[in-house]
Design goal:
The chain is mainly alpha-helical and 230 residues long. The protein has helices at residues 19-24, 52-83, 89-112, 124-134, 137-150, 198-201, 205-212, 218-229, and strands at 155-162, 167-174, 185-191. Strands 2-1-3 form a 3-stranded antiparallel β-sheet. It is globular, with a radius of gyration of 18 Å. It binds fe (ii) ion.
């Protein structure tokens, strides 16, 4: 389970180089700035589930703000080291976790949905994993749906792979970075912050979560599971 498993969806601005590839080549870390990745489909591609207006605001404004925030936190920490003044390190480290997690989760969220999504997973390994961990694919849907609907305030539903026990888990992240299970690799995420759905669903988060399964991108989950277990 390498960092490369997370890299493809993160939009790092390095010259087309995947972080994992640099490490494997023995050339050492080459940190880059975080960058806003483009949506993997046109803004109206999920119309019927989410409008183009929602995707435009969510991607171009909200996600972009997290990218700016994580880059600022990195710069602020470099400035603190340069000045030898760590008086603000606690708050900056919180900003790093909040904005960095926000950037990663949104990058995964766009790919967790597809206009060709929904139905049951075609990939045998993913289907077997869901059955082994949740009893059935429908058992996963019920668990993930309930957890996402119950997430307190601004939260995320997350299907994750946990390598220690070789199992799939449903997690909930409050805000972006709280209630984490370290080492887990997120496969599918559902943003249940109000900005993700309010313009269409108002206070009906449950309706939004139920319809998420109509666009869920099993292919993306299967690719990430295979990479995480490699
Ligand atoms: Fe969001």
């Amino acid at each position: 389970m390498g960092f490369a498993a997370l890299a493809p969806a993160l939009g790092a601005s390095g010259a087309g180089q995947e972080p994992g590839a640099a490490a494997a080549g023995g050339t050492g870390l080459q940190p880059t700035e975080y960058a806003l990745p483009p949506l993997p489909y046109p803004k109206d591609a999920l119309d019927g589930f989410l409008s183009a207006e929602i995707l435009e605001l969510h991607h171009d404004k909200h996600h972009a703000a997290y990218v700016q925030g994580v880059n600022k936190a990195i710069a602020d920490l470099a400035d603190a080291r340069a000045k030898g003044n760590f008086d603000a390190v606690k708050g900056i480290t919180r900003n790093l976790a909040f904005n960095g997690s926000g950037h990663v989760l949104h990058s995964l969220y766009w790919n967790s949905m597809s206009p060709k999504g929904g139905g049951d997973p075609a990939d045998a390994a993913l289907k077997q994993g869901l059955e082994a961990s949740f009893g059935s694919v429908d058992g996963f849907r019920k668990h993930f749906g309930a957890a996402s609907k119950a997430g307190e305030a601004s939260a995320w539903g997350i299907l994750a792979y946990e390598a220690v026990a070789d199992r799939l888990l449903v997690l909930v992240a409050e805000s972006h970075q709280q209630m984490g299970f370290h080492g887990c690799v997120p496969l599918i995420v559902c943003d249940v912050w109000e900005h993700a759905y309010y313009l269409k669903y108002q206070n009906r988060r449950a309706d939004y979560v139920d319809k998420f399964f109509d666009v869920i991108n099993w292919k993306f989950a299967a690719e990430r599971l295979a990479a995480a277990r490699a």
